[in-house]
Amino acid sequence: MTTTMTTDATATRVAVRAASVTKTFDTRGGIVTALQDVSLDVAAGEFVSLIGPSGCGKSTLLRLIADLETPTSGELSIFGKTAERARLDQDYGIAFQQAGLLPWRTIAGNIELPLELHGVPKAERRARATELLELVGLGDLAGRFPDQLSGGQQQRVAIARALAERPSLLLMDEPFGALDEMTREYMQTELLRICAETQAAVVFVTHSIPEAVFLSDRVVVMSPRPGRIAEVLPMRLGATSGRADDLREDPRFFEMVTAVRESLHGGAPSGRGEDR
Amino acid sequence: MTTDGLAPALRRRRSPGVWLRRSLLGVGGVLLVALLWEGYKLLGPEEGVLVGDARVLPRTTDLAMPHVWEMLARLASGTTRAPSADPLWFTVGEAALVTFGIAAAGWLVGVAVGMALALVMLRWRLAQASLLPWVVLSQTVPLIAFAPLVRSWGARLELGAFEWQDWMSVALIASYLAFFPVAVGALRGLESPDTLHAELFRSYGVGWWRTVLRLRLPASVPYLLPALRLAAANAVVGAVVAEVSTGLQGGIGRLLVQFAGQASGDPAKAWGPIFGAVVLGLVAAGSVALLGGTLRNYRRGEVSA
User: Fold this and answer.
1) Residues of A in contact with B200 (CB under 8 A)
2) Which of A33, A144, A214, B190 could form a disulfide bond with A226, CB atoms 3.0-4.6 angstroms apart?
3) Cross-chain Cβ contact B214/A117 below 8 Å
4) How many Cβ pairs within 8 Å bridge chains A and B?
5) What are the angstrom distances between the C-alpha of B71 and each of B75, B82, B259, B269, B283?
């Protein structure tokens, strides 16, 4: 079988390393274990999807990587640094289910926001925003405001914003969850093209099996209560940069969809654990 | 794929036709009030309408209800009978300017205090829990009733070369009425950004102050503008009433009392400062509306989420 991971020099670097990460929340109903003993490596340039039923901790894992939460125990490193250091160094860009654009800023202004906050000179910001708008195919909308865009267009702006500081890691929490199926498939193809250009590693949270299969080098199947990794499935579908819409009708694609589905449904509640 | 939904953008632009219709409606509203006034004066009983011993509608005599045109004509003639006297509208206008200045000073102080309180309450949850009840409670204290007291406290103030002026007591009372809507509105506005936005700024690694400046403050504009307008109206009311109760000379409050005393001989004259106070309130609220016009982009959130 052909190797699915990128074979260039970056493959030797590790983007994300989680070692026995556990996260518990103190709630009124007692202590809830959102993640238990999760270990996972994401290589630089690799596309990894986290999939599982709600409550499996996939969003929590993403938020830990983003340093929006801190692990209760275990080790987490991003490019060899602590999650906090990586956040302050802008090593990652993040996109959520909602685009979360600032309504009072133009499209270009929204993309420039992180650059502006970090003191990038105006001319440089402008140039970067123009470049990114071309990349996400919205070059002619730079001066518009978010309320003048459709949901799909807003989400593309949010992705452009996440890419503004050329991060080597993209964190995406169901970014296409609110889009219709047609737009969604289009955005998936676009995302793979953008990733091929930027060479960024991606951690992608999703509910959709076909989405995870189509986008990923590896799919991490998670199970709930407590949240843990049930299985990590390599997608044997060729390099992500070479995937196009016709893959969606390929028997190998269906085979992978079936594999993920069986893992999701057949996963025993315990025992299968952290087999990577 | 994605449809280019640009319709909301077009709907947002206000055409000149809308403005024309709005001004016509405004003028029509004023005319309607004048018509009701004259209609009641013409048809109503001389002694007014009484329920038992209580008069629920005023007498319709020229003394109690001068004709609209008499009141307007009175504005054009002299304030006193002396040949050198300024026309009434000029005297009223001058007094209104004085009151406007005092109310503006009170408004500025009130806005500054209100914003500062909102920021403190935003920063420390404990401050919010302990301050907010006091802010609300403060408005139940009728400071206007204590206006003469405030004035005498001020008179006893000695800070080097600084001397407390009587108008400052009036401005202080105006600011006391103005700060409340600002504090409450600003706090709501500053807390309005989604968790999503707050987390985005956290991911950018920017601190509390810059998050306030670049995210929370712009997001608070739709909440802040009505609060500022309310504060402006409150400041005017506070200034006029405080002028009356401290007996400050030169403002419209003083004129109201003075001319009301002359109403038995010159009933139309008493209405001059009343019109002046109405115009003053409109100008104050309108100034804030102008401010809102320059901040239009920050109000986009009002239309779509």
Assistant:
1) 94, 96, 100
2) A33
3) yes
4) 78
5) 7, 19, 13, 7, 21
Mean pLDDT of chain B: 84
Q: Is A100's Cβ below 8 Å from some Cβ in B?
A: yes
Specify the CATH superfamily of domain B95-302: MetI-like (1.10.3720.10)
Output the six-digit token pair for A192. Answer: 């793979």
Q: How far apart are CA B94 and CA B37, in angstroms?
A: 28
Q: What is the pTM of this model?
A: 0.78
Q: Is B9 on the interface with A (CB under 8 A)?
A: yes
DSSP symbols for B1-37: ------HHHHHHSPPHHHHHHHHHHHHHHHHHHHHHH
Contact B74, B269 (CB under 8 A): yes
CATH superfamily label, A12-81+204-276? P-loop containing nucleotide triphosphate hydrolases (3.40.50.300)
Q: Which residues contact B74 (CB under 8 A, 6 or more apart)?
A: B66, B88, B266, B268, B269, B271, B272
Span B243-279, pLDDT tens digits: 888 888 888 888 888 888 887 888 888 888 888 988 9
Rounded distance between C-alpha atoms, residue A228 and residue A237, angstroms: 26
Question: In sequence order, what are the beta bridge partners of A22?
Answer: A73
pLDDT band at B107 (very low <50, low <70, confident <90, very high): very high
Where are the domains positioned within chain B?
A: 15-65, 95-302
Say what the pLDDT of residue B59 is. Answer: 84
Longest dimension (CA), chain A: 56
